[in-house]
Amino acid sequence: MKRSKGLLKMVVLSMLVALGVVISPILRVEGMCPMAHFINIVCSVFLGPWYSLLCAALIGILRMTLMGIPPLALTGAVFGAFLSGVFYRISKGKILFAVLGEVIGTGIIGAIVSYPVMTFLWGKEGLSWMFYVPSFICGTLIGGSIAYVFLRKLADNGMLTRIQAMLDAKCYGDKSSIFSNAVMIAAFGAIFFVVIKIAADIFHLEAFAWSFLAYASLGVCAVAAVVYFAVKKGREHP
């Protein structure tokens, strides 16, 4: 039984690595790679921090080898992947903390580490310690939002615990709450943002209206999340 579950883990890990390599150059948003962060968080929740670290490292190495991507493929992935799994375990299965680990690990630690790597190893000039922080944080927030919606739905219908049990991973019961539902509403803004940006890139739509629509979707979903939270909380405490 343990041998079969170990084999299943390897299969799932291989699928996530393949998926990460294939979709990373396709679903990109203005120099960011949000789907890489999506893979990191999903792998962390499914398999744990060490498998997630291995997954991110393999994807980064393959992207560097096959696509000529600079070392950012590694520095912008491995720290967030590991911290995502660690935060998920420490929080006893809170999906939001898995996202937070990715944001801190990649958006801050990975971004700062990328400066000396790109400057001294890759020979890129004109950088500063905080150069990559804004784009890395934006990428993790977008990819993390998509991962949150995906995992939240799996958790709500009971599929997440079943998947974790099949993979012999730690199982947690992260039930929905008013706050988690509000976060999910806000996260939909990131999904709309990615869809609009990718559609505009595919069809070469350079009009200002498309860019405005993408950012407006973030704001509308954020406002809707705040209104939802306020109304639901108000009904709980009349």
Features:
single chain; 238 residues; mainly alpha
Report the strand count. 0
Determine the number of helices (DSSP H or I, runs of at least 4 residues). 10
Which structural class do you get from the secondary structure elements? Answer: mainly alpha
Helix content: over 70%
**Terminal Cα separation, in Å?**
53 Å
User: Which term fits the overall shape?
Assistant: globular
Mean pLDDT: 87
* Rg estimate, integer Å: 18 Å
- Uncertain segments: none
Beta content comes to under 5%
Largest sheet: none
Which H/E pattern describes the elements?
HHHHHHHHHH
Can you walk through the features of this model?
The protein is an all-alpha fold and about 240 residues long. Helix content is about 80%, strand content about 0%. It is built from 10 helices and no strands. Helix 9 runs antiparallel to helix 10. The N and C termini lie far apart (about 55 Å).
Layout: helices, strands, pairs:
Blueprint: H1 2-23, H2 34-47, H3 49-67, H4 72-75, H5 78-90, H6 95-121, H7 133-156, H8 159-166, H9 178-202, H10 208-236
Helix pairs in contact: 1-2, 1-3, 2-3, 2-5, 2-6, 2-7, 3-5, 5-6, 6-7, 7-9, 9-10
In brief, what are we looking at here?
With 238 residues, the chain is mainly alpha-helical. Helix content is 78%, strand content 0%.
